[in-house]
Fold this protein.
Amino acid sequence: MAQWELRTGTSVERLLFFSDAVVAVAITVLALPLFSIPGPAAGETVLDVLQANSGRIITFVSTFFVMAIMWSIHNRVMNSLVAYDGVVFWLNMAWLIGFVFLPWPSTMFGSGDHWGSTDIVAFNSDGTGALYWWTMAFISGVGTITSLYISRHPQLIKPSDRAYWSSLLKTRARLRGAAFFLAFVIAGLASLVYPFLGFYALLVIIPLDFLLKPTKAQRHNLEEASRAETTAPG
């Protein structure tokens, strides 16, 4: 089969299963550094352990939630496919590479000396924070490009979902990927000044996920479009 030939049927299912498996492994790897944290020593409590390893824990929790948001968006896109071509295949591979790579900068950033330090100097970053946030920007950017490409090639979308996609492009949800990408890029730049500044992006990213979802009226229109496409004759 040619590299860029349209693929349908079980090929789509296999691509989805493979993607879900890679994401599951990446999230599991993300949690592995926590298992190396020793328990309380003599005279210590669990609170002491949590405080001493706050960087790893905070980074893990924040990364997990952001990964969950990005995966849910990507999963919704990929589950709308009835076929894919070489462009979608390689964009999906690039997205997965970012997902698999993310646990490494996450671990470095969470284990950095800047956590708990009181003498952090501005513009003296080791770059781990920038790598961490810009890896997220890469994942978000590739996901956005994938969505845009698929939306411009309706033959790749399930017939029952085409009207939904067409209507979705008219809602504010179309801006979500670009907004995430921009927020992550800014967070990376901010972390080059002070490592902690990047985490203020989370105060924007999580609310953005809710603010840029379709409104109640738009969701109603999307449901109507989906039902109309499903019940259309032929």
